[in-house]
Structures are given as structure tokens and as C-alpha cells.
Amino acid sequence: MPTPDTATFIAEARAWLAQQAPPRQATAWGDGDDTVAVFENWTAAEERAETDRIRVYEQAKFDAGWGAALTWPAEYGGRELPLAHALAFQREEATFDVPRRTEMFSVTQQLVAPTIAQWGTDEQKATYVRAMLRTDLIACQLFSETEAGSDLAAVRTKAVQRDGSWVLDGHKVWTSGARIADLGIAVCRTDSTAAKHAGLTVFLVPMDTPGVEVRPIRQMTGGSSFNEVYLDGVVLDDSMRLGPVGAGWQVALTVLAAERLDSGNLGLDNADRAVELARHRGPLSEIERDTVADLITRSYVQRLTGMRVAAAVVAGEAPGPEASVGKLLATNTMARTSEVVRMLLGSDLTVESGEWGTWAWTEHVLGAPGYRIAGGTDEIQHNILAERVLGLPREPRP
Amino acid sequence: MPATSTAARTFDAAPAADPSILTPVPEHDDLREIVRAVVAKADGTWDRLMSELEIGSLAVPEALSGAGFGLREVGVVLEETGAALLPDPVLTSAVVAVQAVIAADQPADDLLEAISSGREVATVTWASPHDVRATPSGDGWTLVGTTERIPHAETAQHLIVPATTDAGTALFVVDLRHDAVTTRTRQVLDDTRPLADVSIAKAPARLLVGPERFDDVWHTVQTAGAIGVAAEHTGMATHLLETTTAYLLERQQFGRAIASFQAIKHRLADLLVDLERARSASRYAAAIFDADPEAATLPARIAAAVCQDVVIRAAHESVQLHGGIGFTWEHTAHLYVRRALGDEGLFGSSRAHRAAIADLVGL
């Protein structure tokens, strides 16, 4: 299929979007949903219902040719369009009141699907990639463990070969969306005699396999968006192994690199909302104005940095260091947003009053610290910048 | 950039342009290499920048016999001259004065040729206090007044200065060599950007921009100046990160390069994050200016606020991370602290820029 010119493409996208939803109007301040949660605070039933609602839209979008596969090859249901078209579609989509994707959708479509496309067998690619881009299947990450947080390669969950199958035993933590996921991507130790990074292998674990048990973790916001996942004698066919035995570290890095690139836009919606709050809580003192203007400046520059990454990728160049700083810019924006909100609301933040758009910010100020830990702690991000971008030596290892 | 804001419009608090405006341009890398090589030489830098590389004509439209590029290319030059703390009037004469002259009501080809070629040097009061009065005199004008803290005024031949007339403020150019003009050098923290006060006692002057267009032109000149300063700061931060990193990879303590200590690595990583913020902000502002100078008002202030903060932090981090040697007179680290602080005084603190940002977004 020939590449449509951008104007035609945008016009067609807009026409399709207009059939799906009304334009996203800026609802009047004080009206509608005032949620600013960093981590969703849903019961299992709510999480399932919300995911299904979004999935219906994602599937319709995919079937109409506008979905996550836009830039992918035809074999995955894609149109092989340049990234510039995908970005143009995203900009158009943001102006319509369509369901907004939750974290599990980007985990599935941006993290796990590309990893399977890179590392999977032909059969795995045929079975999972299209299904994940269309979100027929939702994926979750089975990475961290209690003794393997920043030091991910220290995972102790074991996979051993027995009678032609693999048997997994271990305990994963901090898995988002485990309650609704169809498939987990698990980093396991297959050779305890090999060097730490060399003894790992990745498996695709159907979450309904006997022996898989999900237990929600209650986080400091009071809600649950993460889970512990127990793997107790989980038997998998060798066809569920992703990548070569012993290549688990490389496969995991593929996921983590995608995660870092995917985090650049986090926090911007809430920063915008905090600026709106400032407009409605005025008049501002000079110090308050300065603090709000600083937040505006930081979110503006976070957006610019994302634009630089996009521009480089669209131009077919590997983005430079600007791509690696995205997560730190995002968590900084979140922290400054908290600062602005605390400053503006005072005890209206900490004492429930029933007033729209006040108590709701507790979800942000209690959730934001979590993103400094999730997706590679801010400290690990600093190590990555120092070692991979600046070329500084590693800490000596004992 | 003082608070003379003529743009009454309110700006969206998010960048509106298509990301393609930030697409990397390979020719910019070539330009950077060439400028860097010239700046690295000890002698003849100014002459070579002006007459060989013709940087004064870079952002002059082709219709005015310029190269027809813009502030993006000028920004590449200023990143390099800023990185080297070049004490020549690249920013004031080759960039800001040129931007003022190309906006003249009547073509000022002679003046443009003289300063864009580097044969003569002009300076501008674009960020300095001024109190100058202009009265008509025959075919021309006569200026009386004072203006302070003007970069390179001791060595420049021309001063571009706003002055009040009966019809409103207008922009004039006065010959600094005239007998009625006296300059007084000021003692400054940053010797790489020399400043002088200028007293004008009835000196003849030429009208560049009359009261009708003054507000718009002056606003554009100030915007270009702010973007130029931001580019210099980006270049300084780049240089500071590069040189500090190189030193920390060499310096051994406790039996290993101190760049291998996590406490050091994380500080360098923070400098890198800051540098990328500065690059994003300054390069975007320049790109927007080239597309539509009026739309660059907010991006220029954002760039000014971010880059001023970044350069002050980078300069102080450079001193600290160098340890004792970084606190010596002989080391260059203090020169960067001095430039960063001098610029903050002259061109405005990040807090002042943020106050303007708050105004521009209608906060």
C-alpha cells in the first residue's frame, strides 16, 4: 500500500475518529472527573471493566487500520507507515474523547510485542505479536523479585527442564496488571552455575496456567495497582521460551530499553492540571507565581525533549542522550507538580472537604514517589546516563 | 531581556510546533566543527569568524545580500563561541546589532555591510539601562543622554540605542567615535564581556526604526538576543560537562578514577539532564524564531530561564568536581562562573524570566 501524504492521512484519521467519539472538549473547571491518579486505584472488577472498555476501542482502531500496528509490517496487520504518520495520528487522537490507554496497553503494545517480534520464533511471532498489538492479549512483566530490584540480574525464580518441559518456581513482585493480563513475560534463572547475567532465560507464562497465583500489593496510596505473582511448579512447554536459553538478560534489556523510551511523556497531564488549578486558586503571590511558572517551564521542556526524540527517530537517526533523560524529566515534573499542588491547596489537600479537584490530588502526591522507583529507579537511570552516555567506569564489583 | 513586552497575546503553555522543526540538520554538525576549529586557534579568531566564515551574514536574508539562514545556524556558532568564552563581540555585533539593522525602516546597506563583515563593530543597549532623548536636527537627529553597562562599547564604532522623541520611542545609531560621545569602562566580574557606560552630549544620530515600528522591532531584537544568550549558555554547559568529565576520568584518588564513584557519576548525570534541557529549550526557540519571530516570545523566555539556571549550576558543579585545582585562579573554571553570574546580572535572572513567562501564559 502506498504511503498517503500527511494531509490526506490526517484528514482520513480525523474522519474515522469523528465516528468514534465527540471532540475532547475542555470540560468546565469543577465539572466531571477530577482524578489525577499516578497509579490507578481500582478494584479487580473495576480494572477488568476499564481494561475491556479500552480494549474495545483499541480493537476497533486496529481493525480500521489506525491501531498500534500502523508502523508495523503487513504480516502483523500493519500498514508499514513512517513513524511521522503514527505521531500525527496520536496528535489527532488526543483531540477526541476516546478511551485513554492505561499502562497495561503500553506494556503490551510498546514493550512486549516488539520484544517478541525481535526475539520470538516464527510461531511465537505469528501467535502473539498481532494479538498483542490488537490487545486481544494483554501482557505483564514478571521481572522484579524481593531480592532482585535494581539488581535485576539477581533473579532467583528458577526454571528447570523436566521431561521435555520447563518447570518454574519462584516469586515475582511489582507486576502491574497481573490481575487482567493473559500472558506474563518472566525472567528466570536456568543455570545457577553460570555467571549472574549469563544464567537467565525468558519465558512467556500464560497467567491461567496452574501454579500461577496473583496477590495484589497495597501501595502507599491505599490502592492496589501492583501484584505479587507466585509461580509454584508452573509447567511450560519449550515453545513458551522466548529467545535462546541463557539469553534472558539480553531479552530483558530489550523490554527495559523500550520502557525507558516510553516514559518521556509521563506526568504532563497532571502538570497541566496543576497549572489550571493555579489559574483557579489565584491571585497568586510572587513566590507562588514563580513556582507555577517553573512547573510550566519544566513541562514545556519535557515536551520539547520528547519532540527532539521523535524528530530524530522520524528522520531515521538514532536519538542521542535526549532519549535517555526522559524518565528523569518525567519524575521531576511529577515532583514539581506535587510541590505546586501542596503550595496552592494547603490543608485543602490533606483534609477531605468534598470540594471538587482538591482531595483528588492526594492520589498524585502519594503516587508520584512510586514512579521514581518503578521502571528502573531514578538512581539506576543516573547510572545508565553516567555509564552508557558519558562513558564513566562502573563501580568496582566485589 | 528587560520587561518591554509589546506582544499582548497570551501563549499556550505547551509547544505547538510539529516535532519536525527539531529534526537534526547534518550541516549544523559541519558548521559546528568549522567554528570549533577556528575558535580553538589562539589568534585572529574574530577576523576569521567574520571574514572567512562570514558569520555576520548568516542570519541576514538573501534579499539583503546575506546567507539567508537564521538563528538556528547562528545558535550553533554561539554555542561554540560561548563554550570558549570568546571575548569578541559575536553576540552583540554579529548577531543582535545585525538583527536591529536588518529591521531598519530604510535599508541601511552601508552599516549592514560594515558590521556584518566585521570591518566595524556595533553594540546595542538591548539589555541595559538607558535614558536618551532625540531631537530632529536638519536632515538628521541629535541625541543627548546616557546609557550604561553596554557590552564592548569601548571598542565598538557604533551604538544602537532607543531614544525618546516627541512622537514616541525610536531606534537610533550613533557613532561612538564622535567627540560628543564619551565612554567609561566599568569594572566587571566577567572580563570576557567588557562593559562601559556611554554619555552622549549632543551627538548626531541616524534614525534606524521610527516610533511606528519601534515596539515590534525592539521586541524582536530582544527576543533574538535572549535566544543568542541561551545558545551561548548551552555551549558553555556542553564545554563544562565535557571538560569536567574528562578530568574526573583522569583524576585518581583511593586508587581509582574518581569518575567511577557513584556520588560523582550521579552528579555528572544530573549535569547531562540539565544540558539536554538547555539544548531542547534553546534550539527550539531558535527554530521557532526562524519560522515566525513573534511566536518565539514565549519559547525565548523559556530558553532564557532554563539556560541561565543550567549554566550557573554547571559552572559551580565544575568548580566543585575539580576540587582544589578548580578553585585556583589559573584554572578556567572560575571564568565560567564569572560569565554565568555576569550574564545573570546583565540579561536577567531565571526568576525574572519566569515572571515574564507567567505574564505570557496569562497566569
From TrEMBL, chain A:
Residues 56-134 form the Acyl-CoA dehydrogenase/oxidase N-terminal domain. Residues 246-390 form the Acyl-CoA dehydrogenase/oxidase C-terminal domain. InterPro entries: Acyl-CoA_Oxase/DH_mid-dom, Acyl-CoA_Oxase/DH_mid-dom_sf, AcylCo_DH-like_C, AcylCo_DH/oxidase_C, AcylCoA_DH/ox_N, AcylCoA_DH/ox_N_sf, AcylCoA_DH/oxidase_NM_dom_sf, Mycobact_Acyl-CoA_DH. GO terms for cellular component: plasma membrane. The keyword Protease does not apply. Coiled coil: none annotated. Its cofactor is FAD. It comes from the Bacteria. GO terms for molecular function: flavin adenine dinucleotide binding; oxidoreductase activity, acting on the CH-CH group of donors. Residues 140-233 form the Acyl-CoA oxidase/dehydrogenase middle domain. Keywords: FAD, Flavoprotein, Oxidoreductase. Belongs to the acyl-CoA dehydrogenase family. This is Acyl-CoA dehydrogenase. It comes from Aeromicrobium ginsengisoli.
Automatic annotation (TrEMBL), chain B:
It comes from the Bacteria. Its cofactor is FAD. Gene3D superfamilies: Acyl-CoA dehydrogenase/oxidase, N-terminal domain (1.10.540.10), Butyryl-CoA Dehydrogenase, subunit A, domain 2 (2.40.110.10), Butyryl-CoA Dehydrogenase, subunit A, domain 3 (1.20.140.10). It holds the Pfam family Acyl-CoA_dh_1. Residues 225-359 form the Acyl-CoA dehydrogenase/oxidase C-terminal domain. GO terms for molecular function: acyl-CoA dehydrogenase activity; flavin adenine dinucleotide binding. Keywords: FAD, Flavoprotein, Oxidoreductase. SUPFAM superfamilies: Acyl-CoA dehydrogenase C-terminal domain-like (SSF47203), Acyl-CoA dehydrogenase NM domain-like (SSF56645). InterPro entries: Acyl-CoA_Oxase/DH_mid-dom_sf, AcylCo_DH-like_C, AcylCo_DH/oxidase_C, AcylCoA_DH/ox_N_sf, AcylCoA_DH/oxidase_NM_dom_sf. The keyword Repeat does not apply. Belongs to the acyl-CoA dehydrogenase family. This is Acyl-CoA dehydrogenase. It comes from Aeromicrobium ginsengisoli. The lineage of its organism: Bacteria, Bacillati, Actinomycetota, Actinomycetes, Propionibacteriales.
